[in-house]
Amino acid sequence: MKNQANPWLTSNLFLLGLGLLPAAILIGALLYFTAWAFAFSFTDLALVGRKSVEWNWVGLQNFERLFTRRGFLESLWTTVIFVFFSAIVGQSVLGFLLAAVLRGSQSTIRSVVEVCIMLGWLLPDIVAAFLWSATTSQTGLINQLIVVPLGFPPINFINEYALPIVTIANIWKGTAWSYLLFSAALDSVSREVVEAAKVDGATPFQRIWLVQLPIIRPHIATNMLFITIWTFTYFPLIFAMTGGGPGRQTEVLAVFLYNQSFSRGNLGFGSAISVAMLVIVGLLSLVYLRMLREPK
Amino acid sequence: MSDVSLRGVRKSYGSLEVVHGVDLDIKSGEFVVFVGPSGCGKSTLLRMIAGLEPITGGDISIGGKVVNDVPSPQRGIAMVFQSYALYPHMSVYENMAFGLKLAKTPKTEVDQRVREAARILQIEDYLERMPKALSGGQRQRVAIGRAIVRNPKVFLFDEPLSNLDASLRAQTRVEIAKLHDTLDATMIYVTHDQVEAMTLADRIVVLNAGRIEQVGSPLELYRNPVNTFVAGFIASQRMNFLPVSPSSDGLLLPGNRLLTLSHAKRENVRTLGVRPEHLHLADPEAAHFSGSLSVIEQFGEYALAYVELPSGDLVTIKLDGAPDLQLHQTIHIGLPAEGVHLFDEAGRALR
């Protein structure tokens, strides 16, 4: 098909190819890294030593190790718990509740709460990790202000309740996003529809549960898709707070991948982990995309 | 018993008062239209009757009972919103049944009432459809249906026709009039469209800046407006207002011609009002004023001629048929003795 407006463009193949070049380079660069990880997941490539140069193809051995050796499945379970409680239960539910409650409240209260939850979001991960470690450690703020004055021996929260603490830290960090998204979604629900429900006799809870929530269902699915993917591959906050420890209690997949690839130097095995994560996130996305579809 | 009465009803937002003490009695079964320019407080008044807006002062009673602190669902009212406000995630049937289900009405009764309302409104065929699959007119019927199934004492309409196109609006207007006849319920209807007010109302309440200007039947308001605001607002063609000055045996019109008139309070007259349909073309010697035709709008069955007087005043005159007039030609206009409205300095009508 010829481009009617610019016939000289379609007839000049060289020019067409030149125009395609930037896009081709970009797509190529994106594919290169994925392809690299995919290819090396079938090798025993190491970060240092002899195998960093003389690596061999090992077939599916790395993928077998995912299921036969300790580590991957445990990390996957830790990740599932972390994602479920911090992203789905914590950020999403808390963000929605805040958005629903604050809509009706005064603008000053609303502004104060908004600034507070935005601060968590805006703070760099490393700074946030330091603050949370300092607050929850044996000599930290919670012990100094609450536990010790009440006459109890100090508790090393970050050590004894590591996974709950990083989960709470991530809820604190990420709720702003869900709050903003749900706030905007609730704004899109017409005021008259909510008033109609009021006249129909719906209680405030019924107005949210039976009217507003179903109307913004596509927004909820989109938000779930985003935050699940982000949290599933989330690395800096956990790594900076605990490094995956104590033991392997907080070793989510992203930390496990880092430890295997760069602490142990098993780049091949690390690549296999990343490919597995890609597959899991891809499957999750399919589930959410189905939720986005209109009901029959 | 479904009469509505308002006693000194006020509404303020902070220190800003928008409704300044409204007194009004609406009889059971009456169709009352609140009309006025935007921002006059008519919607606020309706929302206060609905219980969607708390009142700052005064009393609202429905059926003889003060309902100031009664929540909307218990007031025995149903409301039809401007944007229809249908629940987008529910079918037409579910939209109409929602209120009854919340009230834990037995399923068979819900079904019977929804189907009865659907029959009245002729929407039985789309009970299973979603609102987005309906046209504007159909959505409006569903919204009215949702009000009917609640079996309310009082129907409240908040500009229900303003989102419809002109022909559908006229059609739905007739249907609402029929519906009022069928249901025999009290209806309060808010609009800024004076045609809807004239055609639907038993009584019209003209509001301006949070106050009632006049209450009366459509023809009362047309014939005897109490002030220039009501006179200018009611009727499809705006009334002409001309500055006049009283003289010994009549009123001096713009252009210094005399309108002979014996009126007790002639000295107080400052403004003369006359509707375009009451003016007529006259011979040059018998005319009360003359001017040049600046615009003519031909509607086929009638025409509106806008005449600019030498004094700069613009006069609209409604002419039957399709008059053959040229732009800028001189038009001579005669005033009828009857159909002239006289207003004093403050704009109050002089009778």
What would you note in describing this structure?
The complex is a heterodimer of chains A (296) and B (351). Chain A contains 15 helices and no strands. Chain A is mainly α and 296 residues long. In chain A, α2 crosses α15, α9 packs antiparallel against α12 and α12 runs antiparallel to α15. Chain A is flat and about 70 Å long. Helices cover 25% and strands 33% of the residues of chain B. Chain B is built from 8 helices and 22 strands. A 6-stranded mixed sheet of chain B has the order 6-7-8-3-9-10, with helices on both faces. In chain B, strands 16-20-17-18-19 form a 5-stranded antiparallel sheet, with no helix packed on it. In chain B, α2 runs parallel beside α4 and α3 packs across α4. Chain B is elongated, with a radius of gyration of 24 Å. At the A-B interface, α10 and α11 of A face β6 and α2 of B.
Short overview:
Chain A contains 15 helices and no strands. Chain A has 296 residues and is mostly helical. Chain B has 351 residues and is of the alpha+beta class.
Write the layout of secondary structure elements.
The complex is a heterodimer of chains A (296) and B (351).
Chain A: H1 7-11, H2 13-40, H3 61-68, H4 72-103, H5 107-122, H6 125-136, H7 141-147, H8 157-160, H9 162-187, H10 191-199, H11 204-215, H12 217-232, H13 236-242, H14 253-263, H15 267-292
Helix pairs in contact in A: 2-15, 3-15, 4-9, 4-12, 5-9, 6-13, 9-12, 9-13, 10-11, 12-15, 14-15
Chain B: E1 4-13, E2 16-26, E3 31-35, H1 42-50, E4 57-62, E5 65-66, E6 77-80, H2 92-102, H3 107-121, H4 136-149, E7 154-158, H5 166-183, E8 186-191, H6 194-200, E9 203-208, E10 211-216, H7 218-223, H8 228-233, E11 240-243, E12 245-247, E13 250-252, E14 258-260, E15 271-274, E16 280-281, E17 289-298, E18 302-308, E19 314-320, E20 330-334, E21 340-343, E22 349-350
Helix pairs in contact in B: 2-3, 2-4, 3-4
